[in-house]
Amino acid sequence: MKKDEKTKEKRKKGRGRKILLIILILMIVLGIVVAKRVNDLDGNWIALILGHNKNTLKNLDEIQVLIMGESTGMSDTIIVAKYNPKTQESSLLSIPRDTFIGDNKSKAKYYHKINSLYSNGETPEKTMEAVNKITGLNIKKYILVDTKALRELVDIIGGVYFEVPIDMSYDDGGQDLHIHLKKGYQLLTGDQAEQVARFRHNNNGSTYPYEYGIEDYGRMKTQRNLIIAIVKQTIKAKNIKEIGNITDTMKNNVKTNIDFSVIKDYIPYAININLDAIQTAQLPGKSEKVNGIWFFFHDAKETEEIVDKLFRNVLTEEVATNV
Q: How far apart are the C-alpha atoms of 35 and 48, rounded to whole Å?
């Protein structure tokens, strides 16, 4: 090789080394920047990916939302939920579907039940107004979930492990509802999860034991526990690859007035929630038959205590939170 060719070759190698050195320096600098941002976010990579910074969490307020589950055009599930991303506190309060919302108990009619306001999900504001009146809260956000979403979500994540509280055997040809499950911890398919969520009593009239909560009381407790189990198993790392399918299912089967950009801001922090520490309760009161119709009449004083404890962080006298 000639002298000038050797010189050119050395120059090329020199330029190559410089370029590699520059790339290496840039990578180190980038790594330092990323490491600092991850550190600022307490190691939350998802928050980093979504473009959050250390001020994002500071600007996130506690969110309260009314969750309604629909089946056959009615709302069998009405739950008030709270989540505080700063403290990781969360609460679920079940509202019985037969809760009386009229002004005169002696003139109670079927349309004085809170689930009569659902109207196939067309008037969620009416239900929110009734719930706010009962609880004294000021809920402005709602999520309406069709049971199809429950079935699809559970199947997407490969099923949900859940402790079925009792043997369940019920058939309703009119609703094409058939529930046949054995008591015990087991992996439920989406269809079986829906069965568990809708169960009230067996064909022979037997239901949940009294200490668990009979009929609707038991169903509400089971629904709260099932929601927690599904969320806990959905946010596992193995389901990251299913995020597209999960999002599509939610878009197709969920109605809400919460903007997706708002939901996106809460996701990185919600995945760190301690689901075992969620406070749960149901609206306190009693069932009573009036004018031949069963209603649930809430206890105003006990309701205030429950709401103070779950949603206002006010210390009151001890009240049961797992009725």
A: 10
Token pair of 286, please?
A: 């009693």
Range list of H helices, the chain: 3-40, 45-49, 124-135, 147-156, 190-198, 215-234, 243-253, 260-270, 300-311
- Torsions phi, psi for 119 (to 5 deg): 50, 55
What are the C-alpha distances in Å from 239 to residues 22, 151, 159, 274?
Answer: 38, 16, 12, 18
For residue 31, pLDDT over 80 is answered with no
If you count them, how many residues does the chain have? 323
d(CA 184, CA 210): 18
pLDDT for 170 equals: 94
Tokens of 285: 């009161």
pLDDT at 211 over 50: yes
Q: Name the token pair of 283.
A: 């609206």
Report yes or no: 192 and 181 within 8 Å, Cβ to Cβ: yes
Q: Between β-strands 63-71 and 141-146, what pairing exists: parallel, antiparallel or unpaired? A: parallel
DSSP-derived 3-state class of residue 66 = strand
Determine the pLDDT at residue 45. Answer: 44
Measure Cα distances from 118 to 41, 53, 67, 169, 210 in Å: 41, 40, 12, 28, 29
Q: Give 16's pLDDT tier (boundaries 50, 70, 90).
A: low
Q: Answer yes or no: are the C-beta atoms of 99 and 318 closer than 8 Å.
A: no
- Show the tokens assigned to 193: 């999860």
Predicted confidence (pLDDT) at residue 115 exceeds the cutoff of 80: yes
**In the chain, how long is the greatest CA-to-CA distance?**
110
Q: Give, for 142, the enclosing helix (H) or strand (E).
A: strand 141-146
CB atoms within 10 A of CB 311: 21
Check pLDDT > 80 for residue 41. Answer: no
C-alpha closest to that of 249 among 157, 165, 318: 157
